[in-house]
Amino acid sequence: MTAIRIRNLRKTYGKHVAVGDVDLNVEQGEIFGILGPNGAGKTTTVECLTGMIRPDRGEIRVLGLDPATDLSALRHTVGYQLQSSELPNEMRVGEALQLFAAFYPNPADIDELLEIVGLRAHRKKAFSSLSGGQKQRLSIALALVGNPRIAVLDELTTGLDPQGRRDVWELIENVREKGVTIVLVTHFLDEAEALCDRLAIIDHGHTIAEGTSSELIEASGLPSNERRPSLEDAYLAIIHNNELLRAA
Fold first, then answer.
1. Which pLDDT score is estimated for 222?
2. Where's the ABC transporter domain (predicted)?
3. What is the DSSP string of 159-226?
């Protein structure tokens, strides 16, 4: 069943086209990855689907809701983890979750949520004393505190060391097992390949490919003579081919 459907999405800022023509389909219960170079339109796309900004044109449906007209209901359905989530330095982990929980009619149990994200022992820690990985875990918890059916996670593991990234990956798998559909915006191809059921590649504000890792590798047209191409190989080839088409 479709969780998110986007058709012909466009968003401009003056003469700058942030998103030109994006189409996406996200199925309920999957981890869906959005890939693309810096400035491709990934974050603008998810800001439109979460109702943070209004597009110039296009159709968006999130579990049947239109962000333009159903914003209040949408905010109780979708949790959004921003690229950079900063809190007051002295705010404690438990206090932050209680504050955010007060915005929702049916929030998650904070003790259970702290257990899920591995922060129970850090409930009384100030935000400034958290490690980078702990801040990311708190950011995810804040996205989940409203009991959303969909979680949008933007550049989830940027700045984390390899172990921190692996720990967050495990956390995301656990969240999906709770029945939450996840949209993951990432630059990391290994992360996308490890976590995502399906992927979309956005470049210059357009969706240029969508499918499983295997389908994207097949669509790239790369030969498999000596070794099977990786998702990274396919991604680079698809981006390169798109650049050639734009230049033609």
1. 87
2. 4-229
3. T--HHHHHHHHHHHHHHHHTT-EEEEE-S-HHHHHHH-SEEEEEETTEEEEEE-HHHHHHHTT---SS
